Amino acid sequence: MPPATRPGFGAAITGLGLVTPAGIGVAANRERVWSGVSCAAPDPGLAGGPVDFSCRVPGFDPGALLGGFTARQLERFVQFAIVAARQALAGAGRDPRTWDGARVGVVIGNSLGGIPALLAAQAALLDGGPRQVSPLTVPMYMVNMVAGQVAIDVGAKGPSWVTATACASGATAIGAARELLRSGDCDVVLAGGTEAALTPLAVAGLGRMGALSGRSADPARASRPFDADRDGFVPAEGAAVLVLEREEDARARTAPIHAVVRGYGASTDAHHPTAPEPGGEGIERALRAALRDAGVGGGDVDHVNAHGPSTPIGDLVEGRTLRRVLGDRPLVTSTKGVTGHPLAAAGAIEAAYTALALAGRSVPPTANLTRLAPELDLDVVHGAPRAAALDVAVSTSMGFGGHNAALVLTRA
Fold first, then answer.
1. Angle (deg, nearest 10), helices 76-92 and 145-154
2. 3-state class of 357 per DSSP?
3. Rounded Cα distance, 17 and 26, in Å
């Protein structure tokens, strides 16, 4: 059977890089996310707005991590991705000085690009005229530049692009990267997602949409996926980059394998700009497509890292769909209770957490879940991590515009 039609084709995750509100690096993320302690806190940069709290990446010093000259030329969302990519390559044991760059691809998800750079340039223009606008404004703002800059940093000369499917962007990038391996176009692909748009403008826009939690008095308990009292998500930032290789190639070089991406499915609701299709048909199509692609059934799934944004409608639609397609067997979690919602980076970050859950055979808890919404019939892990024999897991993503994506991962 040709590689392009082989079901269950394995894209091995040989490296993980994480820059999230839970910390920088795999170890920090594993500790914080499995603790179930929320990262949400008051945000001075959002003071005076409709929402004045968020989940920011702690202790991120771009000058120390990238060098001052390089850092000054890159917007924050690109800085995150490059740091995550370097982590992932180091963990995978891949040295860009030794590979054929023409066989290496980069696919990174992003939605909002360099909004801070654009706002700073607009302020400079209004204050001092065109000569005060930095010549770096356009390349710092452009969404595609994250893939281009990661490729420059690691010498990747194969296909590179940015996926923009809103909150599903990171998962879409991983699915697209797997296809580059399955088709034979690449031997290695760096795939993931990044977002750094915690500006008053962007957060005010999300707040005016009614998407955000209003719990300013208690930010740490604001993100509460699947809880009966959920009222919206907490805005966040971050990035994850995964090194993907064909499973047989990774095994041949005895590379560390965190998990294997076996299936991918995508769909569009074609219903509403921001609200999910009420019956869940869109996310169901993506989920069933991913299961078919992986060659597994719904009853084979042991664990789901759900999109679970903590919105009243989103959690309800997704939760009912998971129950309908997968039954009551999977252990479900939403790690957004800890990290908040990092928008375009969410799908990649959560795929990384899914891989860690499979490798460690432990499901992290859903933070702040005290009373499961009565409309949902799911086994949602909360309170503490739960050890289990995990072999097949799913990570789901749903984005504005009706974009849906699902990934099926298996234990290495």
1. 40
2. helix
3. 7
pLDDT tens profile 219-253: 999 999 999 999 999 999 999 999 999 999 999 99
Size of the chain in residues = 412
Contact predicate 32/23, CB 8 Å? yes
Half-sphere exposure of 344 (CA within 13 A, CB side): 31
Nearest one of 111, 8, 29 to 350, comparing CA atoms? 29
- In SS3 terms, 108-156 reads as EECCCCCHHHHHHHHHHHHHHCHHHCCCCHHHHHCCCHHHHHHHHHHCC
Told to judge if 341 belongs to the known catalytic residues of this protein, a careful annotator would answer yes
Write down the catalytic residue from 39, 186, 258, 341: 341
**Catalytic hit among 39, 55, 258, 307:** 307
Tokens representing 21?
A: 């509100």
> Catalytic annotation on 307?
yes
Out of 39, 167, 186, 303, pick the active-site residue: 167
Residue 242: closest CA among 255, 258, 265: 258
Residue 300's pLDDT band (boundaries 50, 70, 90)? Answer: very high
pTM over 0.85? The answer is yes
Nearest to 109 by CA among 266, 299, 316: 266
Structure tokens belonging to residue 257: 């394998």
Question: What digits encode the pLDDT tens for the residues 8-53?
Answer: 899 999 999 999 999 999 999 999 999 999 999 999 999 998 899 9
